[in-house]
Specification:
Belongs to the cytochrome P450 family. The strands form four sheets. Strands 1-2-7-4 form a four-stranded mixed beta sheet, sandwiched between helices. α4 (76-84) crosses α5 (87-97) and α10 (208-224) runs antiparallel to α15 (328-359). It contains 21 helices and eleven strands. It has a single domain, classed as Cytochrome p450 (Orthogonal Bundle). By secondary structure, it is of the alpha+beta class. The longest helix has 32 residues, at 328-359.
């Protein structure tokens, strides 16, 4: 019947089919029109899908690379998060999770790519075995050049060797040792103890880090320039040169976390931290060149009997021409470099040392016991010839160099403070040819390498499960101090660049610490925040506010 109907009415069937097709076409057209009417919906969905894929892929890389690595910006987001908190603890966590070494991928087309390590094997390879393959490098040199110039800390090759040789001879001379010892006695007993005494009598809190920085700044300026800036005078005056030096140092460190093209553009425009740096450097240079001019006039007039570094380098002559061996600019660079090292290393270490003593009273008690034994031994033996000259009576006891040398436990306590809070928390090298670290890390020519001394003091693989505990005993064998490998304890660097002033730094720290502890109990103010500051050296971000209490005078 239906077949007959179809045969009888073919037009009707065709019309029906046409109507259905038209309806379908309208529906399809409606969908297309709808999609074309809302193209942003598809775009958003596509972007969301791509973003989720990129995020998952980047986050998965944390397992293989230590940090998420994002397109274009690399690991920069993680670095920025780390900078918001304790940068050094953040870095320690990353290195611990990666076995001591990881590669940081910076943003695309920047110079923030580097290998970061805390493996002692890698440090020995870099600082000693393949020393020539790991110079400071052009990146570090260019970044610090405005402040440090061609001085020893940024220099490489012959420029570095020349300064190192001359400075090494001077550091080991009898005249230089006498200058350092006499200037330290003057500063500690005529200034430091008086400033602390005034604060104790007034019952005032004092920023011990600031006081110690003033002590070491005055001391190193005497040694480097042969001048006394007077930072540690009563009232703690602000000294223009010291302020300019501090500001210049802080502005320079910002460059290390800023893409080179950016800070160079800022320097050209004179804006931001580069403006601060330019203004501060003008103050540093004004002071330095005035002293250099005066010293050259003094030497030319036959009055160069001083033993400071500036005088020694000013007297040097070229073997062929007989002219001055160094330009004024080079003399400025030499002295500024040694001031940077000499000011910060000891003072920053001492600040962390006193903070650690506040948390570990048993260690303080053992140091006092050692000091009391040394003083008792002095009383039972004939007085030293220089005792009267040094004011070695009961009210103004001055420790002799041979007594400072016997302070083994104090030496260990200071070393333990430096292990946990090294004055230079990280340092930088750049490889000049393809290399492979002992741990298997491949280094291509031009790779920047950061070695993290702060992290090394917190690695169980290096110091054991108690690595975060403050234990001077780990440095003692039968009561005698025993040092560690420079590639395990790198507070004073290692290899050919081992710190020239290491012995003096220990002497300075021991002398100042013993002189303070024998007279005062140092207590950190309750609630005072203590955290490291991101800088070339490990300052305390908020200083170290302390209150002093006199010890029993019968023991002095």
């Amino acid at each position: 019947m239906s077949a007959t109907m179809d045969a009888v009415m073919p037009g009707a069937a065709g019309a029906h089919n046409a109507t259905a097709a038209a309806a379908a076409g309208r529906r399809g057209g409606g969908i297309v029109a709808g999609m074309m009417a809302f193209p942003e919906v598809q775009t958003v969905e596509l972007l969301v899908a791509v973003s989720i894929f990129v995020a998952i892929h980047s986050l998965r890389q944390r397992r293989s690379q230590g940090l998420p690595s994002w397109p274009l910006v690399g690991m920069l987001p993680s670095l920025l998060l780390g900078l918001r908190g304790d940068m050094y603890e953040w870095l320690t966590g990353v290195l611990a999770s990666r076995g001591g070494t990881f590669t940081f991928h910076g943003p695309w087309l920047t110079n923030l790519h580097c290998v970061v390590t805390s493996d002692p094997r890698n440090l020995e390879h870099m600082l000693k075995t393949k020393f020539g393959s790991f110079p400071k490098g052009p990146y570090f040199r260019d970044t610090v050049r405005d402040l440090l110039g061609d001085g020893i800390f940024g220099a490489d090759d012959e420029v570095w060797r020349r300064q190192r040789k001359a400075a090494s001879l001077e550091f080991h001379s009898a005249e230089f040792r006498a200058l350092t010892a006499s200037s330290l006695v003057e500063l500690v007993h005529r200034r430091l103890l008086r400033v602390l005494g005034d604060a104790e009598e007034a019952g005032d809190a004092v920023d011990l880090q600031d006081v110690l920085l003033r002590l070491t700044f005055d001391n190193v300026c005497m040694i480097a320039f042969g001048v006394d800036p007077g930072c540690l005078r009563p009232g703690l005056p602000e000294i223009p040169f010291a302020k300019a030096f501090e500001d210049a140092t802080e502005a320079t460190i910002v460059r290390f976390v800023t893409p080179t093209a950016v800070w160079r553009a800022m320097r050209a425009l004179g804006v931001g931290h580069e403006r601060v740096l330019q203004r501060s450097l003008a103050g540093v240079d004004r002071f330095a060149y005035d002293v250099i001019r005066q010293r050259k006039e003094e030497v030319a007039g036959g009055g160069g009997g001083r033993s400071d570094l500036l005088t020694i380098f000013t007297k040097m002559r070229d073997a062929d021409t007989g002219a001055a061996a160094y330009s004024d600019k080079f003399l400025r660079d030499i002295c500024v470099n040694f001031i940077l090292a000499g000011r910060d290393t000891s003072s920053v270490a001492l600040a962390w040392f006193f903070w650690l003593l506040n948390k570990n009273p048993a260690v303080e008690a053992k140091i006092l016991e050692e000091i009391d034994d040394i003083v008792a031994a002095r009383r039972s033996s004939p007085p030293a010839p220089a005792a009267a000259a040094n004011g070695a009576d009961e009210d103004d006891l001055v420790f002799h160099p041979e007594e400072v040398k016997k302070m083994e436990y104090l030496h260990a306590a200071l070393s333990e403070a430096l292990r946990l809070y090294p004055s230079v928390p990280v340092d930088h090298k750049e490889v000049v040819e393809d290399e492979v670290f002992p741990d298997g890390t491949v280094l291509k020519k031009g790779t920047k390498v950061i070695y993290a001394m702060y992290t090394m003091g917190r690695m169980e693989s290096i110091w054991g499960e108690d690595c975060r505990e403050y234990k001077p005993e780990r440095w003692l064998r039968d009561g005698r101090f025993m040092g560690e490998s420079a590639y395990k304890f790198t507070a004073f660097n290692g290899g050919p660049r081992l710190c020239l002033g290491k012995d003096f730094a220990y002497y300075q720290m021991k002398f100042a610490a013993a002189s303070i502890l024998r007279r005062y109990h140092v207590r950190v103010v309750d609630g005072h925040p203590v955290a490291p500051k991101m800088a070339l050296t490990m300052y305390m971000k908020h200083g170290l506010k302390v209150k002093l209490t006199k010890r029993d005078k019968s023991k002095l």
